[in-house]
Specification:
heterodimer, A: mainly alpha, MetI-like fold, 2 domains, 13 helices, globular, B: 557 residues, 21 strands
Amino acid sequence: MPPLAKIILRRLALGLLTLLLVSVLVFAATQALPGDTASAILGRSATPERVKAVRERLGLDRPATSQYFTWLGGIVRGDVGDSLVAEQPISQLLGGRVVNSAALVLVAALISIPLSILIGSLSGLLRDRWFDSATSLGSLALAALPEFVIGILLIMLLATQVVHVFPAVSRVNPNEPIWSQMNMLVLPALTLVLAVAPYIVRILRASMIEVLESEYVQMARLKGMPERIVLQRHALPNAVIPAIQVIALNLAWLAGGVVVVEYLFNYPGIGSGLIDAVANRDVPVIQAIVLLIASLYVGFNLIADILTILVSPRLRTGLQ
Amino acid sequence: MSDQEGKSPFDFGQLREIASSKRVTRRRVLQGAAAAGALAALGPVASACGGTSDSGTSASPSAASGPKKGGIIRAGMGGGSAKDTLDAHTATNETQITLQFQLYDSLMGFDEQSKLVMLLADTYEASDDATEHTVKLKSGLTFHDGSPVNADSVVFSFQRILDPKTASEGAAGLANLKPGNIKKVDDLTVTFVLDAPSAIFDEQLAYYNNAIVPVGYDPKGMDGAIGTGPWKVTSYAAGQQAEFAANPDYWGTGPFADQLTLIEFPDPTAKLNALLGGTIDYANILDSAQVSTVENTPGFKLVESKTGGWDPFTMRIDKKPFDDVRVRQAMRLIVDRQQMIDQAYGGNGWVGNDVYAPFDPGYPQDLAPRVQDLEQAKSLLKAAGYDNNLTVELNCSAATGAADVQAAQVFSQQAKGAGVTIKVNKVDPSAFWNSGNYLSYPFAMTFWGTRNYLAQAQRGSLPAVGTSPSAPYWGETAWKDAEWQKIFDEAIVTTDAAKRNELVSQLGRIDYDRGGYIIYQFNVMLDGYSDKLAGVVADAWGAESASKARYNLMYFA
């Protein structure tokens, strides 16, 4: 077996173990929360008899461990189960939300990653010139602001107070695909871009400066290579390596961080679904969403590690 | 809203009421000034006092210029949840009640001034002994699917409500009714025979959970959600949004718009942003900070509904220390009611006097307003054996109202002045109603909508009686009082309204003297809307926490 495949397999096994641990932790946490699904469904009319009837109907009267293993057995068979409160399959309940969140994260990633690589390397190249100073100032300021503040500022600027160009809330029509309602994505995606980009810009600028001062770049320049080739072949690939890890972390953050942004814009994604599920103590739905986010974390980190290996000659050759 | 003049002349008596009102808020002053200066501002002022346009069957807004037809009304409301349904008989939260209003009607209902009116019923009659209640339907009514509304649908609807499997809250008020005692007389007439007499059975017929649905009704999602309301559902995503088309055969007034979209907002700020950004035309129940934003933004208006809804403190009279009436009286004297409204509810409320059902014709209007009196409270507590050392735990939660935790905190501050330590225990909203919590707390909070006295007492003060095992019991104060019970038993069988009102007034006096509730305020609800929208009316009724916006009367000017 090639060494890279071995690494991937080992990491995948570790990832599965992580997910299993996450599911145990989340299940334990939901058991520790006050109240349960039955009383959340019944609300004020939760008389003891009614609570008992609903608990029996939903199978909540069984011991917690048996509930957990029933759920785990379903997952192993590829069945995420049914929502306790909506009483329909989770795949059906969350399908639209997953697509919406994925669209949001994808759009945010597709804009923020190339854009911040470009801006970061440019400001590294143009170190201490006006472009670099402006970028540094801007990215520092943005990095200091929490994403909901950025979102509120964008809403005031572009939707309610100054100009009315984009909708202030994302009234996504659940009956139509998200791709036909792209204007609903603008402000949430822009918020995520502005929240993520500063970190990538800063790491790229720093590593670009470091690479440009390295001996191999000086060597290349001394050899008389054209500056364009120096940058393309020697500087940029090496400068991007530390950025890959940061990008992966930020993508993983995007998957979880959408919760706040979705809430702010009333965007119907997994974030608002998670909030609703926690309020309802809907354990299978909580598990499904948390595991989805956790597996994205594991997945993005794995991809970042593999990419790092592939683009660093030393690591790549070290495998053989 | 000058376009409303034609159908509803402005009531100057109401303007005087504003001017003479003891507490004149900044908003009311502003509105008063605007009313004096510009006719265009009359709408919000007038409707702020309880509605100016007639609705229902009595008036046709087509007089004068008449409302324009067409358009899509997009309205934002508080957030529901994936667990919501469109079931006509089980709505309990704001979102579900609002959705239900669009789709269904009860036999009777409450109008904007909280007066009992006929909806699907044409006539209602009670026998002299108040055990037989006969309802005759309006003729020619149809459901959304075109099937006729007849005696069979009424019998089916009430049997479904009484079925424990439905778990309808409507059953709570129908404890005296056995499913077999709902009798079809002819195609349009039904007689309800009660096990025990009730002179207020008509109020149960008007309860929003007792809506009329077709025989065989069993909605799954939006399929089968068929009623007689002004709107037919065309799409529904629980916890997100619902779309409706106008019901062309609606028996009442309107609807004037072609479509209605109700969008759910878990975050009140997002709802306000949606209104200001033009994504929605109407936003219900704004919080106090948002009101001034809407007020100061050109192009938007407010409608103020003075309701009989209340979020009281509940003292269980069977638990220490509240089993001593002097402690209850002292606690009531500790509250600075106006300060509570100003600080916890941003001024959106009107002062309560520890007696519920303020719109009941029998409400004791002549009772002296209870004001803060810390010295009197201290001496009452001393007589009860507490000398600056009473410590109680107040259980509160956002489950009863968004600002109720703040109210508990303000109360705790006020109590310090009388040497009472109130520990505010904030309970998770999902856990507040659990058994072992809500109905066991000696000292807590709750919320109720607008009801008349006897109906409210049946739900909140009396133990569940009769035949329906599914009837939930909400005896938060464990109320038990021999004198009160005697008068109540007489009132509930008294069909003569004047006599009954007098008895209700006596009951209110007992509550005022020794009841277990601290009713410091009644809710004022403010909705914001774009000035493109006309025909907006205030509503004194306000179900539980929902504002009963009548979208069928609204139109685009």
